[in-house]
Amino acid sequence: MGPLGRPPGASARASGGSVVQQIISSIVQFLQQGIAAIFKFLELVWTWSFGEIIAIFQSDWKALPIWKLVVLIAVAAVIVYVLYKAVTVLWEAAVAVFGAFVALLTAFVSVLPYIVAAGLIAFAGGWVIHNVNF
């Protein structure tokens, strides 16, 4: 046993693990900030777009000349079509995300025996290294 009742090299392993944890934490934080920025931009675009769409439908329909009413109806039809296309794309993406999530969970479950085996091998190896003397 080394100082403080730890096996020799335990502090080196702890600091190495700490460095890896810091790197992973930094990567996760970077990804979180990037995703947050993307969603902030999406929120800005959606808010503006829906504000414009609502403003079109709040027009004073009765006071408009016939040609502007025709333009308004055409614009409304195009808006409905574009929103329909957006909904179909979002639906397809949601289905793909769900499928990817199921595949990810399946992969996690399928590698679990390997992870447990690796942990048991590491545990057994560590036990032999620290407790068996010839």
Chain-wise SSE layout:
Elements: H1 10-57, H2 66-131
Can you put this structure into words, describing what you see?
By secondary structure, the chain is mainly α. The protein has two domains: 1-58; 60-134. 85% of the residues lie in helices and 0% in strands. It is built from two helices and no strands. It has helices at 10-57, 66-131. The two termini are 17 Å apart. The model has no long low-confidence stretch (mean pLDDT 87).
Q: Top keywords for this entry?
A:
134 residues; mainly alpha; 2 domains; elongated
Tertiary shape: elongated
Q: Proportion of β residues?
A: under 5%
The number of distinct helices, counting runs of at least 4 residues, comes to 2
The largest sheet, given as strand count, sense and whether it forms a barrel, is: none
Low-confidence sequence ranges: none
Distance between the termini: 17 Å
Classify the secondary structure makeup into a structural class. mainly alpha
Rg, Cα atoms, Å: 30 Å
- Count of discrete structural domains: 2
Q: SSE order, as H and E?
A: HH
Helix content: over 70%
| Count of β-strands | 0
Mean pLDDT: 87
